[in-house]
Structures are given as C-alpha cells and as structure tokens.
Design goal:
Helices cover 62% and strands 3% of the residues. By secondary structure, it is mainly α.
Length: 275
C-alpha cells in the first residue's frame, strides 16, 4: 500500500518524524486505528497528517480523509502544527517565515502586522519570526538547516546579521566608488570586478598618478627656476654648440618648443590660479 498524495507547500516545510517515531505511530495505528483523519485541501493536497499518512502506509491501514473547507490553508497548517513537541520554537519560526515567502510579496520584508498575524498562527513570538525572516533574507542557505534541526536559529541569525552588515558595507563602498570613479563602479556592477578589486585598482591608479606628479614637479622645479635666473644675463650669448653634451644641443627647434612649453605652463598656472 503506497500513498502518493501531493503535500501543500507549507505542510512540506515541516520535517517528518524520525523512523523510530513513525514506526511507533504505525504500531499504534495498527493496534488502535487512526484517531484523526488526514486533512486535505480542496485540490487534494495534504494539509495535516503527512506523518499519519506515512504510518498508515507502514501499518497497512487505509487512512481516513477530511477536507478543509476554509479559505486560509497556510494559517490552518501553521495552527495545526504549532503544538508539535518534536519541533523547537526556532524551527517553527523558520517554517512560519518560509511559508510566508510563498506569497506574492516574498521579496519584501515582513511588516509589523504580518509578523503579528504569523505569530498568532504559529504560536511563535514575533521576535523569533523576525530573526527567521532575517535569515531568509541574508543567509537563505541556512534556512533548511534550522528547519531540520541541524542548526539553531540563534546561530543562523548571527550569520545573517554578519552577512547583512557586509552587504550594507559593500553597498556603501560601491556608492562611494561610483561618486569617485563611475567607470570602475560600472565594472563592479557588471561583475567584471569585485568591490575589493576595484578599490585596489583605484589605489594603484592613484599611486601611479602621484608618482607621475612627483616626477613632473621635480622636473619643473629643476628647469624653470634655473631658466628664470638667466633672464637678462649674457648667458645665452655664451652658448657654445661644441661644448653641448651629446644629444642635448640647443637648436632653434628646441628653443621654439621651449617657448611653446612656457606658454602652455603659463596657461595652466592661470587656469589653476597658482602663484
């Protein structure tokens, strides 16, 4: 005898009893019969009694069925299971929060009214449901571990808090990067760079820019003051091309380029309002 009845999504969240408990339930059903029917929704999915259904299968007993005629199947499932002794409040809180994620607003944080309503349905405090919702948003890979009891809700919540803080930090860093270097920020948004890699590249650029400015500044400070000192002197008249160092002779072309450079320098100094 095998039952292949589909489970309601909220019902499916609740972990099954362990094998020993299921066998004990099957033995009791075989000896005394099924006390409570398996409850189905209007489409034939199991709302309550999946453990009883499995125990009946083991015992070889045909289960009794009843149909829920209400209009809030999620509320019914949560209420029917809130007194289960084999589940901790943390497990119930996570199941409750995850059941809510099946709704059309699954990406939105739970509002205060929604949390209160879920608390009443499941018999779990609003604080615990809030913790579970945080886990679903910021450490969703831990939700099933909480439900099956291999991780406590408090531990998962601590991980979720750290993940949230890191995400908010990353968002802040990306916003700052966008204000300072939009092109690098775009590369992060496109997945080409990590935020850490982008900042490392920006730092390298800034260091290279500083190096180039230092070299340029030293060059100008070496050349221009010396050139200014010979203004009005006879130094120019004493120039001897035969004494010029190799490759550094002063020609008409060099003088023209130097004059152009001085004009460009003067324009930059005026633009930057330098003394």
């Amino acid at each position: 005898m095998e039952n292949n009845i589909e489970l309601h999504p909220t019902t499916a969240l609740f972990p099954m009893l362990d094998e020993e408990e299921i066998q004990a339930l099957a033995d009791d059903i075989r000896e005394h019969g099924l006390d409570n029917p398996v409850v189905l929704d209007s489409t034939g999915r199991v709302l309550d009694g999946k453990n009883r259904l499995r125990a009946c299968e083991i015992a070889g007993v045909e289960p009794d069925y009843a149909t829920y005629d209400g209009d809030d199947t999620r509320r019914y499932v949560l209420s029917a299971n809130k007194q289960r002794r084999n589940l901790t409040k943390g497990q119930l809180a996570m199941i409750t929060a995850k059941a809510c994620s099946f709704s059309e607003h699954e990406q939105r944080p739970l509002g205060e009214q929604s949390v209160r309503s879920l608390s009443e349905q499941s018999g779990v405090s609003t604080g615990r449901i809030g913790q579970a919702s945080m886990v679903l948003r910021h450490a969703p890979d831990l939700a099933d571990a909480v439900i099956n009891g291999t991780m406590g809700l408090n531990e998962a919540y601590s991980v979720a808090q750290k993940n949230k803080a890191q995400a908010e930090s990353a968002e802040a860093q990306l916003a700052r990067l966008r204000s300072e270097d939009p092109q690098l920020a775009d590369r992060v948004a496109e997945g080409e760079l990590t935020i850490q890699g982008a900042w490392a590249e920006r730092k390298a650029r800034q260091e290279e820019d500083l190096r180039q400015r230092r070299v340029a500044t030293n060059l100008l400070c070496e050349i221009l003051p010396a050139l200014a000192q010979i203004r009005g002197s006879r130094t120019f008249a004493q120039y001897d091309p035969e004494l010029a160092p190799p490759g550094r002779a002063v020609t008409h072309e060099v003088i023209e380029h130097a004059a152009t450079a001085l004009t460009e320098i003067a324009a930059v100094w005026k633009e930057r309002n330098l003394p």
